[in-house]
Amino acid sequence: MHPPLPSAASATDRPQPQSPRDLFVSFTWLALQGFGGVLAVVQREMVEKKRWLTPDQFLEDWAVAQVLPGPNVVNLALMIGDRYFGLRGAVCAVAGMLVVPLGVILTLAVLYAHYAGNPQVAGALRGMGAVAGGLIAATGIKLTPALRRHPLGFGVCLGLVALVFAAIAFARIPLGWVLLAVGGATCVWTWRKIRP
Description:
Number of strands: 0
Structural class: mainly alpha
Order of helices and strands: HHHHHHHH
Number of helices: 8
Distance between the termini: 43 Å
Radius of gyration: 20 Å
Strand content: under 5%
Helix content: over 70%
Largest sheet: none
């Protein structure tokens, strides 16, 4: 007797948020972990732990979130909330990203204003900046395998990554100009490659 084949529905079923409240709590938790940048935390929580998104869905949504005006992670929260619960989900996800962290930020701002002259505080902030940079680099490395399925090919994608890094880090070209030039050209190139 042959084992039953998995149905198409079960193959595509993924865990999802149980309610708008679940979105609010999840995004609040994400935001509270994201000192210096929340990209690494969002990728780990949404893709690896909760599995609400596949790595490819995360890359696609993150790309859209980056080109929309406003904070990238708030844009991503808005898209994920809308996907599962419409406007109500979008509002809850964005509120989760902003409400509790706003209280934390206001408290830290008051403390920083009081202790800004302390050399230990300045050193701690520099250390947090290094950690945030490491988290972003680690997330980029984790997402690299998804580039193997890109229509332009893995080698071209790595070349574009190197070009963007060099333009921003060494040539000191502002991010907006790099996004417009390299991002725009890559979108057109990819579109020409995949169009029928």
